[in-house]
UniProtKB/TrEMBL annotation:
Similarity annotation: Belongs to the PEP-utilizing enzyme family.
Residue intervals of the PEP-utilising enzyme C-terminal domain: 14-302
Taxonomic source organism: Halomicrobium mukohataei (strain ATCC 700874 / DSM 12286 / JCM 9738 / NCIMB 13541) (Haloarcula mukohataei)
UniProt name for this protein: Phosphoenolpyruvate synthase
Functional note: Catalyzes the phosphorylation of pyruvate to phosphoenolpyruvate.
C-alpha cells in the first residue's frame, strides 16, 4: 500500500514517492513545450510526431521525395529535441506517426493516399508504419539520434496496435534501427478493444507501459465515430464498457509490472481521473490547461484512499 501521498504542500507532488500517481502533460506542438514544462508536470504523456510533418503541409512520402531522408529525420529530431530539452530529465513519450489518410489527403502528396471508406478503421498508426517500414525507419532513426545526443528521457509509444504480432514486428524494427527495447522505455497505446482484451499477450512482448488512447478506445468500443456530430451525444469515455476495458487492462498490467497511463482527452476529466486513481493507474497525462486541476484531483483521491486504508488497518 502507498506509504505516503506527499507532504501536503504544493511541492508535494514533485517530491512524493514512486507510489503516487504521476501527472503528465500532452504537448501538441514543439512550440508549446516551454509552457507545458512550466506546469511542473512529471513529463510528457503524448507528443505526436505527425504534427512535425503535417506542419510542413506535405505527406511524409512527399516530404522525403522533395527534401530527402536526412531532412525528414532532421525535422523530427528538431521537434522532439525542443520538447525533450524543455523537460529534461523528465520523460517525454514520443508517439510514432498516426494520422488517418483523410488528414494526409489534404496535404501536398495527399493524392497518393489510398482511398478509404472508413479512414478511422483503415490505414493509420502502426498499420501504416509496418506496411511502410522505410518511412517508419526514419522516425526510429530520429529517435536513435536523440539517444546519441544524450536525450535518454525520450520514450517510444506505438499507436493503434491490436495484438502481440503488431508489437513484435515493431519491436524488430526498433532493434534494426539501433534502439534496444531492453534498455529504452517503450510501450503501446491501448486504443482498440482487441488490445485491451489481449493485454496479457501485449505485456509479454517486453513493453514498459500501456497508455489508454480513450478518444479511439471509446470510438471503437461504442462504434461511435469521434468526428461525427450526429452521434456526438453518444461519445462517452465514461461508458461502463469503456471503463471495464480500462479497469481490466490496469489490473493485468499491474500483475505484469507494466506501467499504465492515459493520454486521451478524458485524462483531463475529473470523473476519469477519479476512476483511474482508484484502479491504480501509474500516470495521467492531461492537456496543459487541465494539469493543475488534475494534480489537485489526484491529491484528493490519494488522500482519501490513504485515509481509508489507515482506517481499515
Ligand atoms: C486517443 O486516441 O485517445 C489519442 C490520444 O490519440 P489520437 O487522438 O491522436 O488518435
Ligand atoms: Mg488515437
Amino acid at each position: 500500500e502507498p506509504s505516503s501521498v506527499g507532504d501536503g504542500t504544493d511541492a508535494g507532488l514533485a517530491a512524493k514517492p514512486m507510489t503516487g500517481t504521476e501527472i503528465k502533460v500532452n504537448v501538441s506542438i514543439p512550440a508549446a513545450a516551454e509552457r507545458a514544462a512550466a506546469t511542473g508536470a512529471d513529463g510528457v504523456g503524448l507528443l505526436r510526431i505527425e504534427h512535425m510533418i503535417l506542419s510542413t503541409s506535405k505527406t511524409p512520402e512527399r516530404y522525403v521525395e522533395d527534401h530527402g531522408e536526412r531532412a525528414y529525420v532532421d525535422e523530427i529530431v528538431d521537434g522532439v529535441r525542443t520538447v525533450a530539452e524543455a523537460f529534461y530529465p523528465r520523460p517525454v513519450r514520443v508517439r510514432t506517426l498516426d494520422a488517418p489518410t483523410d488528414e494526409f489527403r489534404q496535404l501536398d502528396g495527399g493524392e497518393n493516399e489510398p482511398a478509404e471508406h472508413n479512414p478511422m478503421l483503415g490505414y493509420r498508426g502502426i498499420r501504416r508504419s509496418l506496411d511502410r517500414p522505410e518511412t517508419f525507419r526514419l522516425e526510429l532513426d530520429a529517435i536513435a539520434r536523440l539517444y546519441d545526443l544524450g536525450y535518454d528521457n525520450v520514450e517510444v509509444m506505438l499507436p493503434l496496435v491490436n495484438d502481440a504480432e503488431d508489437v513484435l514486428q515493431a519491436r524488430q524494427l526498433l532493434e534494426a534501427a539501433g534502439i534496444d527495447p531492453d534498455k529504452r522505455t517503450w510501450g503501446v497505446m491501448v486504443e482498440t478493444p482487441a488490445s485491451a482484451l489481449g493485454i496479457e499477450q501485449l505485456c509479454e512482448t517486453g513493453i514498459d507501459f500501456a497508455s489508454f488512447g480513450t478518444n479511439d478506445l471509446t470510438q471503437y468500443t461504442l462504434a461511435v465515430d469521434r468526428n461525427n456530430e450526429a452521434v456526438a451525444g453518444r461519445f462517452d469515455e465514461l461508458h461502463p464498457a469503456v471503463l471495464e476495458l480500462i479497469g481490466r487492462t490496469i489490473e493485468t498490467c499491474r500483475e505484469h509490472d507494466v506501467a499504465t497511463s492515459i493520454c486521451g482527452q478524458a485524462g483531463s476529466k475529473p470523473e476519469m481521473v477519479r476512476y483511474l486513481v482508484n484502479e491504480g493507474v501509474t500516470s495521467i497525462s492531461a492537456n496543459v490547461d487541465a494539469v493543475r486541476d488534475v494534480q489537485q484531483e489526484v491529491k484528493r483521491v490519494e488522500q482519501r484512499l490513504l485515509l481509508e486504508s489507515v482506517r481499515e488497518s
